[in-house]
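User: ok so my PI wants both of these folded by tonight, can you help

Assistant: No problem, let's get them done. Here's the first:
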Amino acid sequence: MRTHFMAGINRDGFDKVLERAVDEALDQADHLVLPGLSLALGPAPAIGRVFRSSLLTTLDAEYVRTTRSKGLGERAIVLRHVVRNSLNAALSMSGLQIGFMFAGVLVVESVFSRPGPGGYLSASIPVSDFPAVAGVTFLLGAVHIVADTVVDVLQCAAGPRVTV
């Protein structure tokens, strides 16, 4: 005789648990908006400046003039050709800015009273907790390596001249 895996659970109680979990998740997401924005607003102007200058340089390229002379619309030119060729510089800049964002995590965590690796690191340094300092440093280094790898993969996908 097969029984359903939920047979012993009060379904009303289970629904309440799921509903409460969703409410708590939404509440936590609300509290992450301002810290996330404050971390993202620092590197955003630098990345935007690099992307804009790369777009302007690419718009003056000869192949863009050639596509215009062939009769392709401006929107198609920008979306298919210009943006794709201009993304490499912005992606490289965003990979560099990730390291600077890690430096800002400590300040953002203390301002918004959010627990995280920055607060743990700042509490571990004065008491000479070497394993904690090494662990957080290793974690941040691993995240930085993964982020750089993702940036490299995105550059290969976006740039027609970039190969692995």
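One down. Here's the second:
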Amino acid sequence: MGQTLYEKVFDRHIVREVTAGQYQLAADLHFLNEVSSPQAFEALRERGLRVRHPGRTFGSADHSISTGGDPLDFVDPMAAEQVEAMGRNMAAFGLTYFDPSRGEHGIVHVVAPERGLTQPGMVIVCGDSHTSTHGAFGAIAFGIGTSQVRDVLASQTLLMEKLKVRRVEITGRLAPGVYAKDVALHVIHVLGAKGGVGFAYEFGGAVVDGFSMEERMTLCNLAIEGGARCGYVNPDQTTYDYLRGRDHAPQGAAWDEAMTAWEQVRSDRDAAYDDVVVLRGEDIQPMVTWGVSPDQSVPVGGAVPDPTAISGQEQGPTRDVLDFMGLRPAAPIAGTRIDVAFIGSCTNGRVSDFEAVADQLRGRGLRVAPHVRALAVPGSRRVREALIAKGIDKVLIEAGFDFRDTGCSLCCGMNADSLKGQETCASSSNRNFRGRQGSPTGRTMLMSPVMVAAAAIAGEVTDARRFFAQPTEPGAKS
């Protein structure tokens, strides 16, 4: 019987079985950020240890970095110290740092793939939950805690139990106006925020096969929000075309050898899965979250729950969430007023995300509603430069978006970009937890970048398919 990609990659990286079912696993790449690495570096110093494999360790400051134009202009002293410590540690231990003072920085899950670091068949770890993004390339990639960051720095290995594998197939085709973000939110809606606990998700089917690499990254990025430890897509020609010629991709004869190895890492046709879920692409609609967990969502044409119609123990918590979000039971999700709109993050901060928005805005004279604060934050400096070269920055600025420098920005609220009070944000990011975007009473509604743009202009949640289909006059405001 054949093996899945997960099984092949896991087995090839086993150093030894420590106890029954627990393995010491070698990591090919270790990515660092300024939030989860300082304590790990201090632990190395206390023990007199060096980084085991400096050439396999890369870092970028992203969570706390300023997006106001000068990445080192901090409002919060703690953020400043985190970034300064990151630079000191990377230099002291001889590690590759995408230095903000040289304009090399960005969200690590955007920077690493665009530089060709992320490749099929790898085990990749980082002290950040959304490391699952890199699974789009056919890698096993997952977030780790600070103590594990220490362990990987010191040994290039960590302890790991083998996961079960669930195949998630998206068949058929998506309707116009439905994006990878909607697919991800639909999967989480159907399977639940804890449905993937103990699993690796293998995404496949006609829809996923047809996705670009950036769309696959969005899908795998959100695997963790469905409870899965990691998510991946089998590598194919789309993967190879994306990697060819990038900074760290193999060159010449090494490229041909790498492609041969990458082909072999794909799941076998007769691989056995612990579970298989099949979802129809035609059933997926633009999704919007109404609550404080990514699985609390509805299609844009749907309504929020009515607690009185829910039996059992969920009635009380649902009522509590609706009160927190300021939503009426059974009310349509469309028409919910927003105060802030955010396009960016490691989920949707790549070139194609902003291109999709620009395609809807270009030449239509649409403007962000007067009461809405709208931020467009590229995921890396390279993304930002590409958007400027394409003129997309001008399209966004003319529509009323604040086109900012790169960083995690409003996704995590660990920098100057944050919600204030009970502001409601239409966000293309990945988490709608209470307090996630910087205010303990702030409200986050997750959706695709195009849906965020429509909400920003309408001033409320709206179906972007219908909103952008409406004719507009040159110079018109909505």
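Residues 5-276 form a domain with the Aconitase; domain 3 fold (CATH 3.30.499.10). The chain has 17 helices and 19 strands. Good luck tonight!
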